[in-house]
């Protein structure tokens, strides 16, 4: 057949062209664009360098959150501040279980975004809010309950601010870490964890004038957290204790040792029993 040599030549030419294409042309071709990937854009990453954490992120387990809110005796009218709020679970639980309002602060913007998304999913955005802030800058006076899961060192740094800023009777709850020599008022176990409660004591140190039945003595009180010592005239103040706004001590005003039980209202201590006939007023 006269056509065969022509067909063979044609096939040979096509094969040679294919080899040239594979070995010479293909390596210089521009690389194929990468396959589209999942969108991992994180706007928080644009906010700056990684935040300096004073405590690492670890979420409190559900049973510990329940124990924290339980030991604090959470009520619907309470305003809760969670310092280092992580994914927002403590405040979200407080809002869902009791309708309590709250503010969470965290220095990590990723945590704030996560907490806000969780609050939206739980339908409690009307009750809780989260803001990016260094917890050492958060004003504390507004809280009825303060929740902490940080470290003992951070608790000790917060302690003077808690005692100076927070109203007497405010409940402070900490997951796992205590407050050094400020002894807790209550403690519970939750699984393997400790949950501590402190009641912020009224500030009573200083000079008072204690008056009963028209007779006054100078009451000089010293205070170490809940413990109160001092003198009433010549007598010693014994077994003195402050719990929130409440105060109780024993002293002798000349008729034997008596118990004085009252309530600190600003610059006055008024007796719990209105018939008790005594009161103390701050004397500068
Ligand atoms: C152990 S986690 C507790 C999270 C949450 N409160 C809980 O119990 O599930 C501590 C949190 O504190 C935050 N944190 C650490 N240092 C902080 C600081 N200086 N100011 C604000 N938040 C901080 C961390 O980002 C982290 O989310």
| Mean pLDDT metric | 88
Ends apart, CA distance between termini? 128 Å
Q: So what's the CATH class of the largest domain?
A: Alpha Beta
Low-confidence stretches: 16-41
Order of helices and strands: HHEHEHEEHEEEEEEEEEEE
* Ligands: S-adenosylmethionine
What would the principal axes of the Cα set say about the shape? elongated
Binned strand content: 25-35%
In terms of quaternary structure, what is this? single chain
Number of domains: 2
**Spatial arrangement of strands, main beta sheet:** 8-9-10-11-12-13-14-15
And the CATH topology of the largest domain? Rossmann fold
The CATH architecture category of the largest domain equals: 3-Layer(aba) Sandwich
Taking all Cα atoms into account, the compactness measure Rg is 34 Å
Number of helices: 5
Fraction of residues in H or I helices: 10-25%
Structural class based on helices, strands and sheet pairing? alpha+beta
Number of strands: 15
Largest sheet: 8 strands, antiparallel, barrel
* CATH homologous superfamily grouping of the largest domain: Vaccinia Virus protein VP39
Question: What would your notes on this structure say?
Answer:
- The chain is an alpha+beta fold.
- The protein has 2 domains: 62-199, Vaccinia Virus protein VP39 (Rossmann fold); 206-282, no CATH class.
- Helices cover 25% and strands 33% of the residues.
- The protein has 5 helices and 15 strands.
- It has helices at 4-25, 62-71, 89-98, 109-122, 152-165; strands at 79-83, 101-106, 128-132, 145-148, 171-175, 186-190, 193-199, 206-212, 215-224, 227-232, 235-243, 246-252, 257-265, 268-271, 278-282.
- It has an 8-stranded antiparallel β-barrel. It has a 7-stranded mixed beta sheet with strand order 3-2-1-4-5-7-6, covered by helices on one side.
- Strand 6 and strand 7 (193-199) form a beta hairpin.
- Helix 2 crosses helix 3.
- The longest helix has 22 residues, at 4-25.
- The chain is elongated.
- The model is unreliable at 16-41 (pLDDT under 50).
């Amino acid at each position: 057949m006269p056509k065969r040599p022509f067909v063979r030549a044609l096939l040979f030419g096509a094969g040679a062209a294919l080899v040239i294409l594979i070995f010479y042309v293909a390596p210089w071709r521009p690389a194929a664009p990468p396959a589209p990937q999942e969108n991992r854009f994180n706007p928080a990453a644009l906010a700056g360098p990684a935040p300096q954490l004073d405590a690492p992120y670890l979420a409190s387990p559900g049973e510990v959150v329940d124990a924290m809110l339980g030991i604090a005796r959470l009520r619907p009218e309470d305003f809760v501040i969670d310092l280092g709020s992580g994914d927002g679970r403590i405040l979200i639980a407080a809002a869902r279980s009791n309708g309590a309002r709250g503010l969470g602060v965290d220095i990590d913007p990723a945590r704030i975004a996560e907490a806000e998304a969780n609050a939206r999913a739980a339908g409690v955005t009307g009750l809780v809010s989260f803001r990016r802030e260094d917890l050492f800058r958060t004003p504390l006076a507004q809280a009825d309950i303060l929740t902490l899961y940080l470290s003992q060192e951070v608790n000790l740094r917060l302690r003077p601010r808690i005692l100076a800023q927070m109203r007497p009777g405010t409940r402070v709850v900490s997951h796992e870490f205590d407050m050094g020599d400020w002894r807790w008022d209550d403690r519970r176990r939750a699984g393997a964890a400790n949950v501590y409660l402190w009641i912020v004591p009224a500030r009573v140190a200083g000079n008072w004038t204690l008056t009963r039945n028209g007779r006054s003595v100078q009451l000089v009180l010293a205070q170490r957290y809940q413990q109160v010592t001092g003198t009433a005239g010549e007598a010693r103040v014994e077994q003195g204790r402050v719990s929130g706004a409440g105060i109780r001590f024993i002293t002798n005003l000349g008729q034997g040792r008596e118990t004085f039980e009252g309530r600190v209202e600003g610059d006055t201590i008024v007796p719990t029993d209105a018939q008790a006939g005594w009161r103390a007023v701050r004397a500068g």
